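Hi L., both proteins are below.
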Amino acid sequence: MGGILGLIILILDIIAIVDVLKSSMDTGKKALWIILVLLLPLIGMVLYFLIGKKT
């Protein structure tokens, strides 16, 4: 069961990173969000979709 959950988080992280790259944010903000998602996969992804997507 843990492997499936990890795979789901990985897929959602990839979706978040692709969304960051497609966004109209400046390069610095994009880099910060990608680093946050990579260092804190679950928390970074959730924060991006709650906070980062609005900016």
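That was the first. Here is the second:
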Amino acid sequence: MNMKRMLLTLVLIFSTLGVFAADITPITEAFKKGNATSIQAQMDQEVDVALPGSSKKANAAEAVTMLNTFFGANKPSGFNLLHHADKKENGFFVAKLPTANGEFRINLTYRADGDKAIIQSIRIE
């Protein structure tokens, strides 16, 4: 009987862990569509942005402008999530972004605010 209770407890613990996961769908959709404006509300007050040829700590509006400039020069033709790790308070993902000018690798970190992912850093190489 104790073994069954322990197993049930473990199942309940692991199933509730997923409830705290931040939703990255709006971010991945923005990259897929090449539209950073749609995720401006998910940018932290300061975001570390590293793009080919430029790198800076930017506020949300500057980060969106930098990304939209990148998307203007490199129109996405898809999005492939390679790795995603999510903890209660933060997470990251690694993805490939095929564009008209070649494929780029995206590394993005975020903090969780409830079920919302707040972007802290974006690196595109």
